Amino acid sequence: FFIAVNFVAFAAFGLDKSFAERGRRRISEKRLISWAVIGGTPGAYAGRHFFRHKTRKASFSEQLHGVALMQLVLLIGGYIYFQID
């Protein structure tokens, strides 16, 4: 699942960039963020960097960073919780 969702997140950034360049209907920011929320954060960051897409839009960056921070807090919190004897 993790590999698939990250592949889709990565590809979504590439498709959206292509659609934008051709004046076609775009993939919504909500959808792009949703892929990150369900586990595709690494793929979203990689696609964003590789395709140089959505890098200057501050509101989008804040949302993506917020998702990554939330996931990091949950990961660390879960690790700490399950390490307690």
Summarize the structure in words.
With 85 residues, the protein is mainly alpha-helical. The chain is built from three helices and no strands. It has helices at residues 2-22, 29-51, 58-83. Helix 2 packs across helix 3. The longest helix is centred in the C-terminal third of the chain and has 26 residues, at 58-83. It is elongated, with a radius of gyration of 14 Å.
Give a brief description.
With 85 residues, the chain is mostly helical. The chain is 82% helix and 0% strand.
Q: What is the element string, with H for helices and E for strands?
A: HHH
Low-pLDDT sequence parts? none
Principal-axis shape equals: elongated
What integer value in Å does the Rg equal? 14 Å
Question: How confident is the prediction overall: mean pLDDT?
Answer: 95
Count up the helices: 3
Structural class: mainly alpha
**How many beta strands in the DSSP annotation?**
0
Oligomer: single chain
Estimate the helix proportion, in percent.
over 70%
Largest sheet: none
Strand content: under 5%
Distance between the termini: 30 Å
List keywords for this structure.
single chain; 85 residues; mainly alpha
Topology, please?
Elements: H1 2-22, H2 29-51, H3 58-83
Helix pairs in contact: 1-2, 2-3
